[in-house]
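Subject: Sanity check before I submit

Could someone independently write out the structure tokens for this chain? I want to compare against mine line by line before I put it in a report. The sequence has 328 residues.
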Amino acid sequence: MNQPSFVNNTVLFYPSKSPKLRLFALWYFTILMIVWNVLGHTVLGFEQSWAAPVVGVGTALFMQFFLEWVDARAKGRLLRFSGSFADFLNFLPAAIIPGFACAMLLYSNERLWPIVFAAVLTIGSKVLFRAPVAPGRTQHIFNPSNFGVACTLVLFPQVGFAPPYHFTENLVGLWNWGLPGIILLTGLVIHSLFTGRMLLVAAWVLGFALQALVRAYLFDIPPLVPLTPMTSAAFILFTLYMIPDPATTPLHPWRQALFGFSVAIVYGIIQVLHLVFGLFFALITVCAIRGLCLHLYFAFKSPTPASTESLPVSTSLPTATLQPATQT
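---
Independent answer below. Compare away.
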């Protein structure tokens, strides 16, 4: 079995197309998700059982390894996690993050199968829904966690979104402000220094405030009412850890601004239509439109020879940071 040239498509969406920034961001998010879930179930007041994160992460890991094995067998290449222990470790974050997210954001009472379903969709969506991002190269278009959670909420009416209050349910005094402040600070650090998504975040927040004020004016309600969601820890989490996913959002600054602002506008429309779970459905809608635009752009673009010259292939990093053209 021959090992083909490995190039990671996701690095196209990081500043300077740097594999180091991607790897750091992945582990940064992974550590934060582990800390949030441990503290959530011991201190903060998460209402799901301990089985939820175990099942969510376990299912996501199984799917990640299984689909990698299927793809490697189909393409006659080596497994990405088989080169070294570092390769194996660096293969895990892409499954751990959505696995924890599904368990943290969904509330299915004592049922675990909805969480299994959501975790399967998060990883499966990266294979099923893709768009070209360079000649001969494709990338998944949906934020995996958002896709899995949104589909589960639609297909399982008995499953709800985790109550936003449980992120700070057991906190008192200054900690009611301290925890959202910590979440805000950690998110600003990663996006300002490593992912280059601060303009996207700013455009989303500005757009959210604008649509809230417009709805307040049109329906003659106090502006504070539609602006209130911005004060919750859940909103901060969505703003800093779901919308600005580097793998599924533009890198160009003005396209970032358009993406973030568009999510806010679609959210406002969903609220006017009196539909629930507006944050998730707004993001999935804009991601789908972006994916369609990418397909149309490359369909009508003059064909050019596929090249990897603009993509970094670093021999100083573990090979888990590099992967074949059709994978992420």
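---
OP: Matches mine. For the report I'm noting this point. DSSP finds twelve helices and four strands in the chain.
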